[in-house]
Amino acid sequence: MKKVLLVTAATVVTLGASAPPSAPSADTGRTAGTAAAAAAPGGIDWGACEVAGPDDPMNGAQCATVEVPLDHSKPDGRKISIAVSRFRHTDEENYRGVLFVNPGGPGGSGLAYAPALARWIGGTGHADVAAKYDIIGFDPRGVGASEPRLSCDPNYSDPIRPDYVPGSRAEERAWIAKSKEYARACAEKFGDLLPNMRTTDAARDVDAIRRALGQEKISWYGFSYGTYLGATYASLFPERVQRMVMDGNVNPKTVWYEAQLNQDKAFEHNIGAWFGWLAKWDSVYRLGDTRDEVEAKYYEVRAAAGKSPIGGKIGPSELDDIVLSAGYNTGYYIPFGEAFAAWANDADPSGLLGWLSAGGDDNSFAVYNAVQAADARWPRNWSKWHNDAVKLVRQGYRFNTWSNVWFNAPVAFWPFKGGPEYKLKGDKKLPGILLVQSTEDAATPVEGGFAMHKVFPTSRLVLEVGGKTHANTLNGNACLDDKVAAYLDTGALPEGRRGADASCAAVPALNDPVPTAVKLKAAGAGAGKDLPVGRP
Fold it and tell me: CA geometry: angle at 283 spanning 278 and 286, to 5°?
């Protein structure tokens, strides 16, 4: 039995934006790291997952690889392998079949999400529901333990990077050259794989795994980009769908260039909310007692980091990447507030350094760009990118605009033009689908939930009203989590009505934490729940 070892860092799952930092591992957090195992033609030869280190995030899950065609239109052609994991059901009498889980990205590793999803569902008080499913995690093509593993320049994002915000045309040209070289390296190393990195290819891989499992139908739990992958599967294989939970929905109308422009506006709002929260708790953080004062302090510290990097390792771009996760997930409010205040007030860099991504691995970034480049048509004229960014900054959307430009910029120089975008199709014969959407989600703004709801007439949309955390199910909101569990257990859905079909209020203690009362753990479903790539 062939063994494949994978070690991945825990990351926050999200979509587009700068890569959020990895959260420290914790056996109760939503993490994404693991190992993979065996291979088998014409079936799945399950084996133990190999894990590096003393802890076992797989919790006894099984791992394997499944062969799929590189090009699904040529089933007898070259094969690639997809790493899969299985956390087995324990309720034999009420077995529901297989439940696939995808953490988002594109580019997020999903192997550890099989045992993690069971743990998170159990943590909501519904372990009996998780026990009825074989939960299937997988690394989509090009990701993690799947082979070939995309990596174009492992050190591309190593600190210290140039400032995301160009101060001159020369600095912008330097970023353009860096992005262009990355695209060239990807084409040189993986020219045969890149045209086969569309979301439709990944969806067909999922169906190949289904066949290898011997299952007639699958259920699906997708976070962030995992909603788009799940929706693509449902469009291609409607007769193979049993149940689907989609949390933090991609807007199918904006795939993909317009999506990152919309994110820039949404993240400005959410980072502003964090600044306002820090001001509210000025007695704790001493950064200013108004949102404007805290914002001014942030940009003062950011500018100083451009001259003298924080702890010798964190420049303006690294600082932006770290605190961006506060725009993804309110669980980061307290730890990032503490870390930023320690530096701003006491010149103590240790907190921020603890959140710094060391670099040395571009797999998630490579897959993110590869999938989005293949999926859709992007502007090839750099003046379009430049003018849109300048316009947004002039309108006041400055925090994430230029960093999002450079996170996506290699696509402008990709070796081929992608698209056309796959048109999702909501077959009326599909079973009911549960869509969950936080109204203040920055990575996948709320409009995506309504757009996905419109595409799939059998879906029901549940809003988390006021929720600022991306893809926030299984993260402490019992109103959401009880609806998810009931649906996975029996197929029960809210009654249909115009607009959203049901709503849950965001939980104040999670959405607006009190630092003097509790220190919340930064999780993320979408986050893992967790990703980078983020932006995935």
Answer: 65
Contacts (Cβ under 8 Å, ≥6 apart) of 54: none
Identify whether the C-beta of residue 433 lies closer than 8 Å to the C-beta of residue 246: yes
Spot the catalytic one: 321, 441, 481, 501.
441
What pLDDT is recorded for position 526? 34
Please say if the pLDDT value at position 373 is more than 90.
Answer: yes
Count of Cβ atoms closer than 10 Å to residue 525 Cβ: 30
Q: What is the DSSP letter of 194?
A: G
In three-state form (DSSP H/G/I as H, E/B as E, the rest C), the secondary structure along 315-336 is: CHHHHHHHHHHHHHCHHHHHHH
Mean pLDDT, range 176-199, rounded to an integer: 98
Is the predicted pLDDT of residue 536 greater than 90, yes or no?
no
Active site residue 348: no
pLDDT tier, 459 (very low <50, low <70, confident <90, very high otherwise)? very high
Q: Answer whether the bond into residue 425 is a cis peptide, omega within 30°.
A: no
- φ/ψ bin of 133: left (φ > 0), alpha (ψ from -120 to 50), beta (otherwise): beta
List, in order, residues 6 or more apart from 430 with CB less than 8 Å away: 234, 238, 241, 456, 458
Closest CA to 9 of 53, 60, 47: 53
- Residue 51's pLDDT is 77
Contact (CB, 8 A) for 32 and 112: yes
Q: Residue 505: phi, psi to the nearest 5? A: -75, 145
Give the active site residue among 470, 481, 501, 530. 470
- Indicate if 470 belongs to the active site: yes
Q: What is the pLDDT of residues 64-77, one digit of tens each?
A: 999 999 999 999 99
Tell me the β-bridge partners of 82: 66
In three-state secondary structure terms, 510 is: helix
**Residue 130 in contact with residue 98, Cβ under 8 Å?**
no
Q: How confident is the model at residue 55 (pLDDT cuts 50, 70, 90)?
A: confident
Distance, CA of 436 to CA of 421 (rounded, Å): 24
Determine which one of 151, 224, 357, 364 is catalytic: 224
Name the average pLDDT for the chain: 90
Are the C-beta atoms of 36 and 83 separated by less than 8 Å? yes
Q: Widest CA span of the chain, in angstroms? A: 67
Q: What is the pLDDT of residues 171-187, one digit of tens each?
A: 999 999 999 999 999 99
Cβ atoms within 10 Å of 286's Cβ, excluding its own: 14
Cα R_g (the chain), whole angstroms? 22
What pTM does this model have? 0.91
Residue 224: active-site member: yes
Using alpha carbons, select from 260, 479, 218, 205 the residue that is nearest to residue 388.
260
Residue 44 has pLDDT above 50, yes or no: yes
